[in-house]
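re: ur question from yesterday

yeah so i grabbed the chain u mentioned. its 276 aa long if i counted rite. heres the sequnce exactly as i have it in my notes:
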Amino acid sequence: MSRFLRLIRFSHTIFALPFAFGALVVAANGWPSLRILVLVLICMVLARTAAMLFNRLVDWSLDQRNPRTASRHLLISKSAAQALLVLSTVGFLLAAATINRLTFILAPVALALVFFYSVTKRFTSATHFFLGLALAIAPVGAWIAQTGRIDFPPIVLAAGVICWVAGFDLIYATQDYDFDRREGIRSLVVKLGIARSLRLAQLLHLLTFVALIGFGLTAKLGTLYYWSMPFVAAALLYEHKTEKLDLTGINRAFFQSNAFVSAVFLTAVCLDRLIR
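ran it thru and got these structure tokens back, copy pasting raw so excuse formatting
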């Protein structure tokens, strides 16, 4: 089991999950029902698991040539990864189908979008934004699970998630600059160079901060939510100091700062909606 969790980087689930739960709490204007909460959690975990397995299978041979990812294929067999992909995909579709009519209709679309990210590096340099889109589905999906409709606040939040993910993925992708350029893999880091990519990441994280403020305004959140924003800003600023770190330092700062951003967001939303 530990090998499988390492393969799909299960610990990184903490990045998107708080945004989904935060949107759910806002949509419910308090605690959602236990049924909806559990089903959203199941859908989140299964969708991300399926997406990561699909990514690993698509990049199976490529990962073996990349020094940073060369050991991934040793964690589980390819046939096991294929079987688990089928199981997680079917499980996600079934769980989504039990929530409401709109989640049932949109579940295959959501799955197609999260799968699509894995092939974008073959034809576009904007792959970082497709990764952001894959994670941005989470808060929108959670909102639909609660309300059965699409509203403006989760769209604003999704835009912030896209910018946030694209920004930190640009920072992360600087580790693979030499390999991606040698292999002809499309990436904004290869296209723009490391220095310009890091400046773009700074702009994207500024837009993330603006979008989080916008979400608070459109969702009519209160003072407690806005008091949390300086902590989010501090975490985003800290993340941009990773460019001076080695590989271990980048990985540590990457996880800590992004986990902190999502955790602060969820805490702020819960304090606003659950403490009156």
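noticed a couple things. DSSP finds 14 helices and no strands in the chain. also Residues 247-274 form the longest helix (28 residues).
anyway ttyl
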